[in-house]
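Try this one yourself first.
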């Protein structure tokens, strides 16, 4: 696994864990209140990880891939939660 991928996957994992926790813990009427909060947390974590690496090369691509993947995961989770609610 390359270091670029190792810096992206934790953000995606955080969004998956957040989506599962929302589905398990949150009340159905609060699902769509918590989805943007989880996304905001993943964006902050993505920036923290990428800034912690201290490499300029590919910074924008890594942040875009991290947050874009998280957005896709949470959009899919929103569809699933909408079907369950």
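Now uncover the answer:
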């Amino acid at each position: 696994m390359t270091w670029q991928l190792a810096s992206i996957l934790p953000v995606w994992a955080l969004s998956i864990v957040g989506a599962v926790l929302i589905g398990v813990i949150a009340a159905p009427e609060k699902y769509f209140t918590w989805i943007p909060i989880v996304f905001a947390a993943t964006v902050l974590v993505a920036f923290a990880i990428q800034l912690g690496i201290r490499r300029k090369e590919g910074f924008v691509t890594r942040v875009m891939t991290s947050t874009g993947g998280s957005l896709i995961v949470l959009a899919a989770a929103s569809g699933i939660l909408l079907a369950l609610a």
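Discussion: Residues 59-84 form the longest helix (26 residues). The chain has a mean pLDDT of 93.
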